[in-house]
Structures are given as structure tokens and as C-alpha cells.
Amino acid sequence: MLKPLFIACLFTFLSCKRESNSTPVMANQDQFEVQWKTPISSGPYITGMNPVLFDSLVIMSTEDNLHGKQAPILFIDSANGSVIDTWDDYIDGSTWYWTDKYYQEGDYLMLQTMHSNDCLNLKTRQRQWASTTNQSQSAFVYGNAGYVYTSHHIGTKTAKVLRSPIDQKNWQTIYTFTANGKMSPFFDGFGFGELPNGDEIVLWQNRSGSPLDRVEIFAYNISADTLLWRNRDFIGFDTPFSPKVFNGKVYGRFIGSVYCLDIETGETIWIKDLEPSFEHSFLPFGVVYLDYYHNQLIVHANRDKLLYLNPDNGNIKSSFDGYPDGSGEGDFSEYQGKLYFTSSYQLVVTDILSGENLASPAKLGVLNDIDIRSSITIDPASGKLYFQDGYYLYCVKQPKNL
């Protein structure tokens, strides 16, 4: 009876000894390395927000029952991925929070649904304030300079722009628009800038749906409390895209084109159709990313190229191949002369000067098997990357040589 037991114990001992004497697998310093991953779902895929960094924490949303709570917001230790706190004190229930459904500034994180707002104090990890509305509210929220902005809609003809200080509930209507004829206004895609004289302006899209498909751009002078201009040059329908202000001009996307407007008058200076620069594909063509670096507009569409445009006339200065074709999430993230974003759920890292995609399959390593479903959040001190795939929040160390 003892002999079989002795042999089994001896085999277990030798197995453990072989394992303990084995050479540990060293991390490949020439590849991206997952340092930790933390579940944001109890099983099914969820649509989550882009990771938010605050002090030593990463804040992340969930979309199902997790940690015994319904869709809690997670406060995660950025060093090791442990969940140190949760929050789920929603005033009117939760939703999925992707790019334009939340806004973070300083100590505050605003979450918005089509019926409610919840503002979290990230220091206390408690609700700062909350509000509900029985009006038709946009699901999108935007922010700038200590204020959050959204829109309400009354029937099919009236749209309003509202704002509140982010640290307190004080919604005020700053502009009301009532359409005539066939237009059904819907305000979203907010952007911000200032005039040459320093006046603060807020811009937004008006997306009118069928039977009159049109995208308009409005500019409101916050400092002077008056509508500055309204551009009506874009016929057709598009999804939300916030106008961006660079060097006294307004830039944005309209489906597969990039436009430039005069910031003081709203006049269209140029519009560049980029689809002829790309090969035909079965996918509907659309510009995904647009930003301004080194006196040029850098544009990525859902194709396999990256374009550098002249901001003065929209002409293509450079075109770079070797990029995955597909949509992405959020905006470019910049770190040490490189742009980080996603396309077709893959990580892309662009050297701004050369236009080269540095995230080759060899560099990506284990990331080749992860479908990234958020923008890339970068810790400016450590250079670590944070993103999520609908199942886990990841912390990733960059290669030593990139």
C-alpha cells in the first residue's frame, strides 16, 4: 500500500524540482509586453470607455454584473491591476460609455446617458452631482475649460445647447435653434477654440436626417454670448465628428473628405475628397482620425494608408503605406514624437517625422492576438499603454527600442 504512494510522491517531487530549476522565460525587450490585465466583464463582451488615468489609478467602466454590482466603474491600481474601489451609485441606471459618452477634466468624470448625468469626484470616489431630464437628451457629452456641454431636443424641430460647470449642477441653455421646412435638427460633435481676439467659441454639428440630409457647423461666441456663424455647405449624412481648431482655422471630417473653415466667418476655405487617393474597397469610405502636428494635418481613413495634408489648401504632402485598413476608436494619442491609435482593432504607432508604422507584427508580439476596442491611453511618466478589448483592461510596456 505504501509503495504506490511513495512512487506518486516521488514523481510529484521530481516534477516540482524540474519546474523550479527551469530557466524563467525572459520578457522580449524588443516586443510589447502585457504587464497585467484586469477583467472588466464577467464573461460576455462589453463596450467600455477609453481608460482614464488619475493619480496612480486607471478608471474603467463595465457593462454587466461585476464585483457584486451592476455595471460598476472600477478604480484600478495602475501598478498591478488590482481593483481597489468600485462605484455604481447611478441616479438613473448605467449604459455603455464610449468616446463621447463621458468626459474627464481634473478631479471630475462626467458620465452621460440619454436621460441622466452622473458626475464623479475622482478624489473621493463618490458622486459629485447628478441630474435627470425628461427631455430628449443627446447621449453625448463634451467639455472644455471647466464646463460640460450637451444638447436637448424638443420634438423634431427644436434643438438646444446646454452647459454646466463640471463641479456642480447648474445647467444653462446658451443657444436654442428652431428649424423650418423639412429639417430635423440634431446637435452633437462639439469642439472648442478661440478667436484671434481671445474670445472663446464652441462649435458643433447639426446633423439633419431624412428627408433632408445635411451636416451644418455652428459656431457660438461664448465670450460675447452670440451666434458667430452657421455653415451649411455639407449635403449628406455623417456620424458625429468634433470640429478642431488649429492656427485660427476650423478643420473637420465630412464622410470621406476633410474641410477647412475660416474661424471668424465660417466660410469654407477648402474641402478635400480623399477617396480617390485610396484603392477601392467593399467598405464604405470614411475618414477616422484627423489631427494637426508639425504644421500638417495627419489623416487616417479606414484604408491602408496614412496621409499628411497641407493645412493651407488640403493638398496631399505625403502618403504612407503599411497601415491596417479599418475603423478605430477615439483620437490619436501622442508620446515622444509618435502617434498611437487603433485600426481594425490593431495597435498602430506612427513615427510623426517619417510616417512609418512602427508597430510591426514582430514588435506587437502578443498584441497580435488582442482586438483593441478603445483608444490608447499613455502614462506620460512611464510610457505604459492602457487599453481594453471588451473583456480585459490591459497595461502594456513598450519595447525598449521602438
Folded structure, characterized:
By secondary structure, the chain is mainly β. The protein contains 2 helices and 34 strands. It has helices spanning 2-21, 361-364, and strands at 33-39, 52-54, 57-60, 65-66, 69-70, 73-77, 83-87, 102-105, 108-112, 116-121, 126-132, 136-137, 142-144, 147-154, 158-165, 172-178, 187-194, 200-208, 214-221, 226-235, 244-246, 249-254, 257-262, 268-273, 287-293, 296-301, 306-309, 316-320, 333-335, 338-343, 346-351, 377-378, 385-388, 392-397. The strands form 9 sheets. Strands 12, 13, 14, 15 and 16 form a 5-stranded antiparallel sheet that branches. A 4-stranded antiparallel sheet has the order 1-34-33-32, with no helix packed on it. The protein has a 4-stranded antiparallel sheet with strand order 2-3-6-7, with no helix packed on it. A hairpin with a 6-residue loop joins β15 and β16. The longest helix has 20 residues, at 2-21.
Brief overview:
Helices cover 6% and strands 46% of the residues.
Mean pLDDT: 90
SS-derived structural category: mainly beta
Strand content: over 45%
Main sheet: strands, sense, barrel: 5 strands, antiparallel
Summed up, the helix count is 2
Which residue ranges are poorly predicted, with pLDDT under 50 across at least 5 consecutive positions? 1-26
In terms of quaternary structure, what is this?
Answer: single chain
* Head-to-tail CA distance between termini: 61 Å
Helix proportion range: under 10%
Strand tally: 34
Q: What Rg, in angstroms, do the CA atoms define?
A: 24 Å
Shape assignment? globular
